[in-house]
Amino acid sequence: MAHTELDLRERRAIEDMLNAKVPVSKIAAEIGRYRSTVYREIKRNYFTDDELSYLNGYYGMNAQRYASDRRARRRKLIRLDKLRAHVIDRLKTGWTPEQIAGRLGYDGQPVRVSHETIYTYVYSAEGQSEQLARHLPSRRKKRRPRYARRPRGQVFPPDRSIHQRPEHVKSREAFGDWEGDLMIFERSQGKMNVASLVERKTRYAVLFRNNDRSSTHFMNKLMDVMEPLPQTARRSITFDRGFEFREWRKLKTGIGTESWFCDPQAPWQKGAVENLNKRARRYLPRDTQLAALSNRYMKAICERLNGTPRKCLGWRTPTEAFREEMMKLR
Questions:
Q1: Sign, CA torsion 45/48/52/55
Q2: pLDDT, tens digit, 9 for 90 and up, residues 233-290
Q3: Are 238 and 261 in contact (CB under 8 A)?
Q4: What 8-state DSSP symbol labels residue 263?
Q5: Pairing of strands 236-239, 205-210
């Protein structure tokens, strides 16, 4: 969805709902905006007066005027020809917007603008027509908004929440529901990591080396590992909300596996795989040289983990419990 600023109708709606004590989350849902957008709008355009404190509050008309004034200030580089020519000249010599803004007073410019204003102009329609972005040290076709956040509500929609999982998944009654995570290592290992999976009912563990943290790469590797299992042995996987799992829809379309997600900042909700990670760290400490790990060594770690008796399994091993469940599927 293209970025659009709030209009007067939306601002009036915010004012009315705030006066009615409606929570911000519900206001955002009513006007079709992100909650962070509404919070930021209220904070930026809140009217305060020390002498008339009883008038303090959010007013739609005031907010619209404040926003219009800010837009007018951003348009300085369009209205003022000399200032615009000076900024463009410095951009072409390799100066950054921050350097240009900081030097305006020294360069005898009567009007000042911030580096954010210069960035806004560079990425505006006018700036793009002159291809000004190519003169920046870090060149991008488009710029992320200054306070941009990932729209995680769309990446991990509410109907995929861990709280929406069927009861048989929560209770571990059924076989074929997994938890997944990535074990991260020291920076010297680059993007390499180890993926960890555990079947919730049998505690059967799978570890495999992953050479890239990109979501597409991870999901493709995960599908290769899971696809040989019967469909009923890979019905779902629960992840946290890390960016590595953003391409979760591939699991559904590729191998028919559902995905569920923990609450934000609540990885402990997938406790089985967190427990697996702790036990696996005995063999894979953070300073492990991942490039030297052979598939044979990774398999040996899995066999040791899966060959250890577990009290929660009545002292059976995960391997024994997993085989019993697989036999039932035949």
A1: positive
A2: 999 999 999 888 999 999 999 999 999 999 988 888 999 999 999 999 999 999 898 8
A3: yes
A4: P
A5: unpaired
